[in-house]
Structures are given as structure tokens and as C-alpha cells.
């Protein structure tokens, strides 16, 4: 049954799989751009990813305006201003972010500055009303969430706008297979949390659900093998695709309790948000299973396929879906403990986290945040 | 007067909640394994307090340990150590202080003091050999450290006092004893949370005598001879105080300038020890007893004041681009009064200046201008206005307002006045130090930049060198003796003194683990052995230091610390110093790998089970 009302926007074009990098010249030209600023981190540069990217652009009309290989993990005002200046000085007309996390966040912030022709700090108060400069993201498999969504993180600001989607997401195994098992686990857990929270909202959105379900399907199918062997080409491509789909679903739904709490905890502890999401998700799902709406049975369809879904009695679909999801989370057991206590997060800090989360997102009460934190800490 | 031969081997435990106290014996075995001072304090904390407690809760304990040397006449041994859980970092907070409280506590018959619980109303304690008196401190609440110390002079020969900053739980409030401080990690806030304004020790009740006077005296005299022969301890620091470091750091490019963007500055000489000694006609004003005499006082604008130490001058001076020693002295006096750690206060203000410049916040603070700084310090101490945010330190500030790349702290503790990009060993030391960006964990900058004994930009030998210095430093802080004696004790023995630098440098760089075996630091364990009557060889002593360091690390890992926290602010990893044409940054990952290997930690920075077992640390 079609819902009475829903909205959905997914702007980016996804180019995934074999020789996806070679699509970049065509994509740039169709965006009327020829001189991109390429941003990547020292780590990916040392692994030869920037060379791979440049090689893919050899036989084209694309001229790289500037290649910046020292992007830090933290998107600070200093680096954003520095790169914006570089963009202008070299007369660039587009941006390619080669990598996830800090690289992608910096690229988005630079795009805002050069497109809106303003200072990065003023961007927080400006409503973006027109498309920004063309931007392509070439993600690695260490996604931290939000890179491919309609959101930008810089300093401690969070800016949401439909125009913050990248124009193209290029997912190529030559780029994705370089992350390690821990990073793959974090990426998968972030995508899992975003997807589940996006399709678990009260107002159903069938198109958003389709994206979330695709993300879940990829994760369930590929996570186990990819964690064991992160260089597994298909697996790493699937995990990044899952992250892209989950980010789109995340952009079209309100931020969930797991996402908000994980962001707050990660900020204070230097832990990866994905890791915290993985822990919180387990208890969030257990809680949801026993609440009135419960877990949506359609998740079983996405995770296990039509045969299992059809074979499972209707009453048991919720529980089976829950078991499948927990199985996904358990795959990361080697890298992610089962409780917040296992991460050595002191109990006295939970109150502070709940308070901060309630300030950040008023959709839930402080007590609700605290309840989930307590459960995740104790493992009950 | 009664006598204590060696150590009394007892500490007094005070419960503020029930206003009671009891005597706790120290096991001989623990003394041998942990030496005393910081080591024994950490061991007591480990045995008594569970992991994960709130630093401001009743469960947190404040432990003061005097160490074996205090009161025996050992040179530069008028010191004591304190251990608690730091509210600034959430980790183990340790401190060393040269104030009179240590001597007073020891000569009251106690090797240490444990404070637990929380008083219902403002209280102060008077400790004597007979026990503890709980006294009403309402009349002192809201008063500054100097006023309270003066008022308590008659009650005992040494006191520990907090100022208004401690009462208001400023996360980097310190504890004052005489004109010396337990400066770092916010120990003043812990006492403030316990409603404890001051602790007074009567003192002068016992005479401390070594068990083996002949052995002790021999080692003591040799140490004194070395101190009086060494260029740094007998000339540089004695004449110009620790501010002699200003010119050395400036020349070596490790002086913090403009919130650690520079490295050196043309006007730095104006705030150097040499300049201050001449301008303020300085005289000695030191810890007691002391043979180095690095502490000075001088006539500043017609008033006799303590001359600010190097860390204060570096962070309040060049780091804020203020080159007026009188202004720096004014800031120092205010921090002294309110009980604020000068390093954290100044680095937090530097963050505010840069954040203002970058538009993240709006304040009246500006680099190069002393205006509004005194008001800001007062606002911090009383948590007024934006001072309330500043009182939480740079880590919390950057979490709230952004600017984490220039929030100069490690694990929450603000960095001392040495730029790590000019000495990679110091960079590694800052990153892995147990209490945060602590310069006293190794003081490797001296080895690399001042003494040129190790190439500051070489990756070779750094891991094992830092691990070795950490071990020695932990042992020194457990004896307990001034860290500056290391210049004399380590550099004056034959092998080091007479090996030319061009040979010494490559030996330490390329053959570090072997070179350290040839370092003769036997004077310290000899004195310890003379006092306690127990056998203590040099290698056993260094192993004890390693045990203390690894125990502290292990305690921190139980609070969530791992490799992710052993890092430096982004500025040092991505931006070069203005004074460095090569724009070098710190290659931290490689340094950390070699350090973990030398330490016996796993790749995530957690001590391996076999490391703990080898050091006889019982895992919890």
C-alpha cells in the first residue's frame, strides 16, 4: 500500500564496479567541468591511490588543477580555507575527493566556500539555494558515515542541505580494497545503523526503504568475507555501495538515537563512531523488538531473500529479522566488543553523553538516551 | 625528638565523609617494588580504587606520598608526590611538588596520606603523629591560596591549600604548598569537590635517619659533588633559573610561539632568565632542601615576587606573543592566588585567542596584547561568563566550539612549553605520556636540543630512548628527588662526561638499548639503599621505574586509553613551524610503533600479559 505522503531525494549518480574510475572524465565533462581539485590523504597517496586515479584520467581532456595529498582527518577551518584558496588560485572548476572521513568532509566544506563565495563559518547560517560546484567522491572502504549523504561536517558544525550530495560516487575495487578489517567493520556498522534507523521510522517511505534494504542486503551478503579478507574486491565494493545507499537513506530520514549517541561518544573518546554504533545498535534492536511497532518484518526479506521470508511464519518474521541483524553485528565481534563497558567507557560519563545527545537532537528525551546507554554499557 | 630509621612504613587514611582516620601499613615488598613516592601512591590507588569512577565522586581518593629521601638530608629531596584520578583527563593524575608539606608530613611520622570521601561542609585537616583534627574551613572558603597559607602558618610547618579555582572545580585547578604547586591534572578541583580547603601537617616531630648512614653519606656527597660540578645545575639554572631554557629553546626552534605555530621569536630574549636576573635583581627562593637553587624571587615593580618558571614564561609569554616579563609575572601571581595551573590556563587562553582570530568564538583576547588576560584568568577561576567554558580546558572547548586542530592538548592535558616538531623524541614522549602532554615524563627535549646527544629529527632509537628515560623518571619521582638532579647524576659519570659528543650522539641514536646499559645512574639507588637498608642495584631500580610506568599505563587502559589516544594535536602532524624552512612535521606513527615494541605493548598500545607478568603487576 502506498503511503499517503512521502518525499525522497537522491541526487548522486553511482558508478560502481569494473573500471569505474575511467568514468570520471565523462562524468566531469557532462557536469561541464575539466579542471578538478583532487583532495586525498597522505595514507592513500602512499598506497598509490592518487596515482591510480591520475592514470585513469590519462586519455582524457581533464587537467588536474591541483592534487592535495595531505588532507588531515579533522576538517578544520584552517585546512578548508587553505584548500579553498588553492582551488581559486589554480582556477579549478570541480572537486574530487579521493577517500572517506576527513577527506570527504573537507572536500564538501571547500565546495561550500568556493561555491557560495563566503567564509566557511558563515556557511552555517546560509541556506543553500543553488547547486554547488561539481563534486565527485571516490570512496575508500573506511567510511565514517555522511560522506555520501546530504550533509557536511566541519569543525564542530553540521550542515544539512539537498545540495550537499556529491554529484557522482565512483566505487572502484582498485580504491576500496585498501582498508583494513577494523575499518571495514566500522563502515559496515555505520551503514547498518543508518539503514536500520532510516527504515525504522514511523512515517514509511518506500523508496527510502528500498535504499536501506539494499544496504542491508549487501552487508549481510558480503560482510563476513570482507572482514576476513579486506582486499576482497567484490566485498569491499559491496560494503562501500552499502554505505552509499545507507547515506542516501540517512539523508531522507530524521537522525536516529543510535547515530546521535554514537556521534557524541566518538567526539569525546576518539573512538570510531561505527564501533559505537555497532554496540548501541544491538541493544536498540533488542528494545525495538519488544516495543509496539517492533522491527519491520520486511527487513527479513532484504536480509534473507524471498525464500526464507516466505517460509517464515508471519508472526516470527520480526524475531527472525532481528536474529539476522544480530548475526551481522556478531560478524564484527573480533573488532567490536559487545558492550560500552568493553570499550572502557566509564559509567559516570553516560549522563554527560545523554545530556549532550538530548541537546543535539531533541527528538528523544534525555531519559531515552540514558536508558539505551545504560543497557549498552551493562550489556543487558 | 623521636627518630624514624629509614621509613615509617605507614600512611594515614582520612575519611572525610565519616570524619574518621586510621593507620595503614605499607608492605615491605611493595616498598621494594615501587620505591615510594609516585610509585607507591599509584600502587595504593590501584589496589584500593576501582576503574571507571567519577573523579568528582566520593570514591576518588587523593593520595600524597613523601618518598624515601625526604627528611634524610639527601640533596634536592624536599619533594612529595600526589596521585588521584584527574578530572581534566579522566585518567591517572600524578604530580610532584617541592613545597614544605612533604617534609612536614614525613616528620609528623607518616610516609603518606590518603584522603577519601567528601566533607559535608568546608573543612581543613591538621595532621600530626597523634592523628587528624577535622576543622571548619568556612572562614577560609572563598579566600586565595596565599591568604589561607598565611593564616595556617601557626598550625603546622607545611600546608596544602586550594584557591578559588579549586573550590569552583576548574578542571585545571592546582594545589599550593608554600610557593610550589601540584600543578597539573586538576588536583585542586578534586580537593574542591571533597570540600577540603587545606591540609596542614604539624611536622618537626620526628627525625629521619638512614639505616646505613655510611653508605648513604657516601652517595649523598658524590651526588652533591656532581650537582656542583655540572654546568646546567651549578651555573645555568642556579644563576638564571629555569628561564635559562628560553634562549636555549628559542635557538633550538622549540619555543612555543603564537599557540605553537612558531618555534622561535626575535623578541624571546626579553623574557629569558638572563634578562630577568639582571632586570629584577633575583635572589634564591627554592624548595627546601635544595642544592641546585633554580627557584628565584626578584624585585618586580617594587614588590618581591617569585620569578615565573620557564613553563609559565613560555606559555604566557611567547605563546601569547607577550614579551613583557612584568605582565607575565602579573598573570603568574593571579594564577598563584586563585590556584590555577599556569600551563593549562595559558594554553587555554592561547586557544581562545586563535579561535577568536578564526571566528569560532567572540572574545576580546588577541595575540600580542596583555589586555583582558587578567580579567579572563579571574573569570576562569570563578567560572564567570565565558570563563566557565574556558575552565574546562582546551579539549572540552574544542568539542563545543570546534578548533580541535589547534587545541594544544594530549589526552586532555595542555602541552608544556616545548614545540614537539623541533624534537621528535619529545613529540613521542608527549603523545605516549601517561598523564597527557607532560614535559616531565622524559624531558627528552634537553637530550635532543639542549645537549645534542640525540638527533632531534632521527627516527632511530627514539622508542627505546623514550622508554628508558620514562623508566628513570618514574624511579626518580618515586624516591622522591628533583628531576633536575638527572643532569648531574646522568651526565657527570666518567663514560658520559668524557665521551665526545660526535661519538655519543651516534651511539645513543643507533645503539640505544646498548648505550643505555652503559649509563651509570647508580647514585640514586645507592642513596635509597642507604636509607632503607635494603639491597637495590641499578638495574633493579630501573626495572622498578618501568614497573611504575607500565602500572600507570595499565590503569589508564582500564579507563579506555589505547593507541587512538596516543597522538598529538593535528597542528603538529600537518603544519610546519614558521622558523623551519623544511616545514617538518612529526612522523608519529613510526615513532609510536618503535615505542610500543620497546615497551612490550601490543599494537593497540595495551601492555601485553607477559609484560605485566614480568613486572609482577597483577592484572585486574
Describe the structure.
The complex is a heterodimer of chains A (380) and B (620). Chain A is 53% helix and 9% strand. Chain A contains 16 helices and 8 strands. In chain A, the strands form 2 sheets. In chain A, strands 1-8-5-4-2-3 form a 6-stranded parallel beta sheet, with helices on both faces. Chain A has a two-stranded antiparallel sheet with strand order 6-7. Chain B is an alpha+beta fold and 620 residues long. Chain B folds into 3 domains: 208 residues, Aldehyde Ferredoxin Oxidoreductase,  A, domain 1; 171 residues, Aldehyde Ferredoxin Oxidoreductase Protein, subunit A, domain 2 (Orthogonal Bundle), CATH 1.10.569.10; 195 residues, Aldehyde Ferredoxin Oxidoreductase Protein, subunit A, domain 3 (Orthogonal Bundle). Chain B is built from 28 helices and 19 strands. In chain B, strand 8 and strand 9 form a beta hairpin. In chain B, helix 2 packs parallel to helix 25, helix 11 runs parallel beside helix 13 and helix 17 packs across helix 19. The interface between A and B is medium-sized, with 26 and 30 residues.
Gross morphology of chain A is globular
CATH-derived architecture of the largest domain in chain A: Up-down Bundle
Q: What are the low-pLDDT stretches of chain B, counting only 5+ consecutive residues below 50?
A: none
**Count of spatially separate domains of chain B:** 3
The proportion of residues in beta strands of chain A is 5-15%
Please compute the radius of gyration of chain B using only Cα atoms: 22 Å
What structural class do the secondary elements of chain A suggest?
A: alpha/beta
Count of beta strands of chain A: 8
User: Whole-number radius of gyration of chain A?
Assistant: 20 Å
Provide the domain count of chain A: 2
What is the CATH H-level superfamily of the largest domain in chain A? Dehydroquinate synthase-like - alpha domain
Shape of chain B: globular
The interface involving the most residues is between:
A-B, 26 and 30 residues
- Most strands sheet of chain B: 6 strands, mixed
Order of helices and strands of chain A: EHEHHEHEHHEEEEHHHHHHHHHH
